[in-house]
Amino acid sequence: MDVLQKYKDFYLKYANINKAQFDRKLVNTKYQIKGVKTSDIENFVKELCKADIDLNKLPLNYHEDILIKGFLIAKKKGVDKEKELSALLSYIDNWATCDMIVARIKNSVPEDFFNKLLKDEKPFYKRVGIVWLKNNMLKNQLEKTLKQILQLEDDDYFVKMAQAWAVADGFAIDFEKSFALLKCCRDQFIVKQSILKGCQSFRVRYEQKLRLKQYRKDFKMKRSDKNAG
Q: What's the burial of 18, exposed, middle or buried (CB within 10 Å: 0-12/13-18/19+)?
């Protein structure tokens, strides 16, 4: 099987200039974007899974190349998923690649791998860890997981947004526990974005959203008083 030729044929058939231009506005990556639909990538991955291919020889030139390899790591049997994901991390440089690949990894890689990523200095390594914990540990270990996520200190926008996303998901699982943990957070950005995402969620009840909005006002006033003093 000529894998590189299959890639060329794939992009020739499914690359879309208009979608690539649209995606470029949403995804800040150093890699060229071909504009391929996620569903077409998934179908291509299914086809590759049936073939005897060496993951180390797959191209990693385009944004979609990285998604393809990440999806393959998650789906293909007989793969050392921890080793392969570790090797792919340095290519993950945007929120979309991170979140889409992590969503498919699920529990096929040990939790400890992602716990270690939380301590990494690279923002997207850290985001991979946060998003995986949010997806896989929050439901059954909410307090432990949120505390672990919220104690991280990082000024990177995409790390903080992942932290806020985790809190907002927590609101839908156990509002009282998640709200109590948010009240312990002193990072204005994370508090604001957690509340914003919670208020946008269909899984958070109306009266809970009112409490979040009131807390946002109170939090803002407390910070104003503190700055004035």
A: exposed
- Claim to verify: residue 180 and residue 163 sit in the same structural domain: yes
**Could you report the per-residue pLDDT of 42-84, keeping only the tens digit for each?**
999 999 998 888 898 899 999 999 999 999 999 999 999 999 9
Residues of the chain with pLDDT under 50: none
Residue 218's pLDDT is what? 84
Q: At what angle do helices 81-88 and 63-75 cross, to 10 degrees?
A: 170
Q: How far apart are CA 32 and CA 181, in angstroms?
A: 40
Burial of residue 97 (CB within 10 Å: 0-12, 13-18, 19+) is buried
CATH code, domain with 160: 1.25.40
Amino acid at 185: C
The residue range of the domain holding 34 is 1-107
Residue 105's identity, in one-letter code, is I
The total domain count for the chain is: 2
Q: Is pTM, for the whole model, over 0.85? A: yes
**Structure tokens, 56:** 């180390």
Q: From CA 23, how far away is CA 20, in angstroms rounded?
A: 5
For 62, phi and psi rounded to 5 degrees?
-115, 160
122 and 100 share one domain: no
